[in-house]
Amino acid sequence: MADDPMVRAAHERGVTTLTLDSPGNRNALSHALVDQLGARLARAGADPDVRAVVLTHTGGTFSAGADLRDPPHPDALVGLLRGIVALPKPVVARVDGHVRAGGLGLLGACDIALASTASTFAFTEVRIGVAPAVISLPLLPRLDPRAVARHYLTGERFDAAEAVRAGLVTACGDAVDAELAPVLDGLRRAEPGALAETKALLTVKVLEAFDRDTRTLQELSARLFGSAPAREGMTAFLERRDPAWVL
After folding, report:
1. CA–CA dist 40, 36 (Å, integer)
2. Contact (CB, 8 A) for 113 and 77
3. Which long-range contacts (CB under 8 A, 24 or more apart) does 146-152 make?
4. In this structure, which of 81, 130, 154, 191 has its CB flanked by the most CB atoms within 10 Å?
5. What does the alpha-carbon distance between residue 12 and residue 36 come to, in Å, rounded to a whole number?
6. Burial class (CB in 10 A: 0-12, 13-18, 19+), 103
């Protein structure tokens, strides 16, 4: 693990909390962060003392999506998302801030997602000339089709109540830790083997999507990210201006 980790771990009463701790780039999914998070998750999954994992963040952003200056390899991102889904321990997202683009893939991969009412969400990919391709692997099997069509196609920002309605978030409240407490209590009361089998039952359809669609969506992602519109969109984003196609 790096001397200055981007993902920090703590353990209390059977629950490992993994904290995305790269607030300088809004916890963007860089090559290093994806690798570190994957390693931390694998360690928690193999630890018999871990009953569940909480995934949370420092700063005002859970994750801003892919780090455009240091993006993860598509295989690494797929591996991370599948690793969360297939982990034999429940993974609970705790969100108290903003989530954008690829960061929403993390929420989709988690078994339970809880957010504060102050949190906001957006699938911003179309606004930089790409599509939410790889992150669709855990998201599309779980989201309301009409809601996801609107949010994928427009890139507009939406609030926590809409995230609950769409199926992206399990529950929201003014204080996210008040939502988290009964969930962790329930997980701590569950027999570990039954918990693992129940998670496996719940994730069958999601893992089928990975098996069926990974290659197609990786190819789509690579094609779009290598395109001229994406280069313009990402340049415009970094330069804080509208891309050329905005009317």
Report:
1. 6
2. no
3. 151/121, 151/122, 151/123, 152/123, 152/125, 152/126
4. 81
5. 20
6. buried
